[in-house]
Structures are given as C-alpha cells and as structure tokens.
Amino acid sequence: MKLKMMHLKPLILFAFTAIYLIGNSSAQIRHKNQGNLKVEGKDTLTVNANNGDIIEALFAIKNYGTETLTIAQIATECICFDYHYPESGIAPGATDTIRLFFKTKNVPPGPYFKRVFADYDEGSIELILQGNLKVIRPRYKPNEKTVIYRPKQIVVRND
User: Fold this and answer.
1) How far apart are the first and last CA of the chain?
2) Do 6 and 34 contact (CB within 8 A), yes or no?
3) Which CATH number, 2.60.40.10, 3.40.1090.10, 2.120.10.10, 3.40.190.10, labels domain 37-157?
4) Cα–Cα distance, 93 to 40 (Å, whole number)
5) DSSP 99-131
6) Would you list the domain boundaries of the chain?
7) pLDDT per residue over 19-53, tens digit each?
C-alpha cells in the first residue's frame, strides 16, 4: 500500500499544480473582441470552395473608443493568407475593413477551420474562416477538348 501511495503523490501534485496554473493564467490572457475595436456583423464566415480558389473575406471593424486605434499586426495560422488592413488606424466612431485573402491552392481538400488575429494595443480581434474545399479533376472525354477547372475569386462579407 505504501508503494502505491508513493507513486500517486507526484501525480496528485502535478494535477493540483496544473489546475492552479491554468486557473491563475486565464486572467492574464486577452480574450478576443474585448477592447474598443469590435467586429460589425459576424466574426465567422463559412465558405465552400474548390481547391485553387481565392476566398476574399471582408470584415467590417468599428472603433467604439475615444482615441484612434491602430492595428499592430495581423497574425495568421498559415502562409495561405494575404491581408490588407487600415495601417493608419481607425478613428473614434469610424468603421473600416480588414480584407483577408485565403489562397486555397496548397491547402488539403476537406473541411477547414482558419483563425486570424488582428492585434492592437487594447487586445485582439479573432476572425474565422471555415468551410469545405473540394478538388475538381480535369475531365477527359474521347474526341473532346479536356476541361480544366479555372480557379476563381470568391468575395464574401460579414454582413
């Protein structure tokens, strides 16, 4: 019995330490969309597309503060994103747009879930793109010209 308790003590100590650290660190983590910059409309867009398409997602952002707020950086999960944002800042009461360009060419087919963060002094804004990517294979028929899929640009807004 004594041997079993000796093995349990480190495990119990580890569990209590982990619970303590998780409980105390959560107060320090900045939560999404908690500052004066807010997403106007939905912060999650669902788009189904074909591999190779470019999805252009437009997110309206409003400044509810009393000072001009400047986005410091856009943090993406992968290099499959390009983006444009108001680099000069967003004036108090003004609404501007963050444009995300999701390039699906090298993304595996199937369901996807991509998060992008716009960081600024007071916090960050989380923007989400999700959906399903499908592969369109070339069609070959005897005595006919081969039909090859031409990728397209899909524009969506968070209205």
Assistant:
1) 64
2) no
3) 2.60.40.10
4) 12
5) EEEEE-TTSPSEEEEEEEEEEETTEEEEEEEEE
6) 1-30, 37-157
7) 544 554 433 344 456 689 999 999 999 999 999 99
